[in-house]
């Protein structure tokens, strides 16, 4: 059962004080943890910006109430020692690693991304257009290059599409995707597709899913473009171009890293692992788990080590592994991920102020979510089918074991 973090004010259980002066500067205290006016004001402004509302007394109390909830839940988590749970630690490690990767990519891949006015005008035109497009696709760079050579030699597009697609519709229609607007396509795919002239095909394009040769059948432009609309959308256009350039850089950087690692697989073991993963009978893992699966720069992974790494993938990522080749690509991606994390640690990015601040915030958010997941499975709080009632009972329990003071005069009178 999922329990959402609700905003529920229970005034009878919270002591409100009206005797504070502005100099005290403490909005509230929760079990001796004090919330200063400056801290409250800063977070409250972000809250207002997020929900697109103006300052009023109701919003002030609603936000304060959410802060009180968070502090109570974090204390409850500490009292229950949830941070010692193996599941908690594993999920928190994933958050830590992802933040570290974000820091690393910002420093190594996403730095110095420049956007020109000409690029923004081009994207503005593309944003107001539709394209009819088809493609030939492969996850293998070697195979897509082979298809391009055959295409250049005069082999029919439809014949090559039948070879490369498993999907029956794409096989029969020559890989036709139909009409799309710019934002409906992968940013890298969209950029290259809209860059083409009608009737022309691209060179192989590296996207997040693999490699595509793109062919444009038709483009329809909105001819009623206004300069004022361009000026109003410059920030959004700049962000889209930055996103395309960053994704392109990351794909290129990952490919270069994989090449540098000199990754060599034991192909028979890889096939056995894929067979095991797709088998109903999982009894023979003991015979397989200690076998060498892959070697790369200064390291090697057994099947067991690879399985542990694969467990880090999301269900969506795992569902896309439909062949031993896709399994290999997933493991290569995990190897590169490990390299990136090791590089980030070498650069001491985990000790930067930005990382430490971001991790603290993400850890608090995750802890709150984790606690609410846990109480949804407990019988201590009169769990029912009503999420709001469940949260009310839980919060009532926390408040009954806490001391909460709120300076109502300060809440009412402070100026934003």
Describe the structure.
There is one protein chain. Strand 9 (292-296) and strand 10 form a beta hairpin. The chain contains 18 helices and 11 strands. The protein is globular, with a radius of gyration of 27 Å. The strands form 3 sheets. The protein has a 4-stranded mixed beta sheet. Strands 5-4-7-6 form a 4-stranded antiparallel beta sheet. The model is unreliable at 1-21 and 379-384 (pLDDT under 50). It is α+β, with helices and mostly antiparallel strands and 416 residues long. It is 56% helix and 13% strand. 20% of the residues are buried.
Uncertain spans: 1-21, 379-384
Q: What is the rounded distance between the termini?
A: 39 Å
Helix and strand element order: EEEHHHHEHHHEHEEHHEHHEEHHHHHEH
Query: Which range best describes the helical content: under 10%, 10-25%, 25-40%, 40-55%, 55-70% or over 70%?
Result: 55-70%
* Number of helices, counting only DSSP H or I runs of 4 residues or more: 18
Question: What would the principal axes of the Cα set say about the shape?
Answer: globular
Mean pLDDT: 88
Which radius of gyration do the C-alpha atoms yield?
27 Å
Structural class: alpha+beta
Annotation, overall tally of beta strands: 11
Main beta sheet, described? 4 strands, mixed
* Strand-residue proportion: 5-15%
Describe the strand arrangement of the main beta sheet, using strand numbers. Answer: 1-11-2-3
Brief summary of the model shown:
By secondary structure, the protein is of the alpha+beta class. The protein contains 18 helices and eleven strands.
């Amino acid at each position: 059962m999922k329990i959402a973090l609700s905003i529920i004010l229970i005034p009878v259980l919270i002591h409100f004080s009206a005797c504070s002066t502005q100099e005290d500067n403490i909005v509230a205290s929760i079990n001796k943890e004090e919330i200063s006016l400056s801290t409250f004001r800063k977070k409250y402004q972000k809250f207002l910006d997020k929900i697109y509302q103006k300052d009023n007394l109701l919003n002030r109390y609603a936000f304060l109430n959410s802060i009180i909830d968070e502090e109570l839940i974090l204390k409850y988590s500490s009292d229950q020692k949830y941070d010692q749970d193996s599941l908690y630690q594993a999920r928190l490690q994933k958050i830590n690693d992802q933040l570290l990767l974000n820091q690393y990519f910002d420093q190594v891949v996403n730095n110095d991304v420049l956007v020109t006015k000409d690029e923004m005008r081009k994207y503005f035109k593309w944003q107001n257009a539709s394209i009819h497009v088809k493609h030939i696709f492969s996850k293998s760079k070697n195979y897509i290059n082979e298809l391009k050579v055959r295409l250049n030699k005069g082999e029919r597009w439809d014949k090559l599409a039948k070879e490369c697609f498993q999907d029956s519709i794409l096989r029969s229609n020559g890989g036709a995707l139909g009409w799309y607007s710019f934002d409906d396509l992968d940013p890298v795919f969209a950029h290259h597709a809209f860059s083409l002239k009608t009737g022309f095909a691209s060179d192989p394009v590296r996207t997040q899913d693999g490699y595509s040769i793109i062919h444009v059948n038709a483009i329809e432009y909105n001819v009623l473009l206004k300069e004022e609309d361009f000026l109003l959308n410059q920030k959004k256009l700049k962000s889209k171009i930055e996103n395309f350039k960053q994704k392109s850089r990351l794909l290129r950087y990952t490919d270069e890293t994989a090449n540098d690692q000199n990754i060599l697989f034991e192909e028979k073991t890889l096939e056995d692992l894929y067979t095991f993963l797709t088998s109903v009978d999982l009894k023979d893992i003991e015979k397989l788990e200690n076998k060498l699966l892959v070697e790369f720069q200064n390291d090697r992974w057994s099947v067991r080590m690879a399985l542990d790494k694969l467990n880090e993938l999301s269900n969506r990522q795992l569902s896309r592994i439909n062949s031993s080749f896709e399994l290999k690509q997933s493991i290569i991606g995990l190897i590169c991920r490990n390299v990136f994390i090791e590089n980030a640690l070498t650069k001491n990015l985990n000790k930067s102020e930005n990382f430490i601040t971001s991790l603290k915030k993400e850890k608090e958010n995750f802890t709150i979510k984790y606690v609410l997941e846990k109480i949804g499975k407990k019988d201590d709080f009169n769990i029912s089918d009503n999420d709001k009632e469940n949260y009310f009972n839980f919060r009532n329990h926390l408040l009954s074991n806490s001391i909460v003071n709120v300076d109502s005069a300060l809440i009412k009178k402070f100026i934003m």
